[in-house]
Design brief:
180 residues, 50s Ribosomal Protein L17, Chain: A, 3-stranded antiparallel sheet, 6 helices
């Protein structure tokens, strides 16, 4: 006899779990990439994969079936116009889960779930060159020696001359007010 492996309960009752997965699915379809806990990502993957497979049929009936799960017109419009067109003939596997480091507050396992065909090349942040310790430490002999070294020669900059203050004598002295 086939025994069904039960789905994750996510610490919620049935209605709350359905609402959570619907919300996560909607956000995934709109933004193409979301960050959530690993358990929620794995459950969301099941829901989204089935939704995209239904959407590939492109019928009105499929739209109505999907609208039962996702109650956002903008998400459904994005699904049928953008996502289904890009998915093409892919036979499943529309999402990818990338595990992240644990969340700081409660050490929950975190993950990013994203649509496979919509991933962009990761933008690498420019790494700052590691600064030598001698440059960081204030009283270092090495840092003092480098400070004395001549600066590279460049075109001389024109220095703005500070404005000379007007002498105090040039101003007319103010007469004291008479108290009458």
């Amino acid at each position: 006899m086939r025994k069904v492996k039960p789905a994750r309960k996510l610490g919620r009752n049935a209605a709350h779990r359905k609402a959570t997965l619907s919300s996560l699915s909607t956000q995934l379809l709109l933004h193409k990439r979301i960050e959530t806990t690993e358990a929620k990502a794995k459950e969301t993957r099941k829901v989204v994969e089935k939704i995209i497979t239904k959407a590939r049929k492109g019928t009105v009936h499929a739209q109505r079936e999907i609208f039962k799960d996702i109650r956002d017109k903008e998400a459904i419009k994005t699904l049928f116009e953008e996502i289904v067109g890009k998915v093409g003939d892919r036979p499943g596997g529309y999402t990818r889960i990338v595990k992240l480091c644990p969340r700081f507050g409660d050490a929950a396992k975190m993950a990013v779930i994203e649509l496979v065909d919509f991933t962009e090349a990761p933008v690498a942040a420019p790494k700052a060159a590691k600064q030598d310790r001698s440059k960081r430490v204030k009283g270092s002999k090495k840092a003092e020696g480098e400070a004395v070294a001549p600066a590279p020669k460049t075109a001389p900059k024109a220095k703005a001359e500070p404005e000379a203050e007007a002498p105090a004598e040039a101003k007319a002295p103010e007469a004291p007010e008479s108290a009458e």
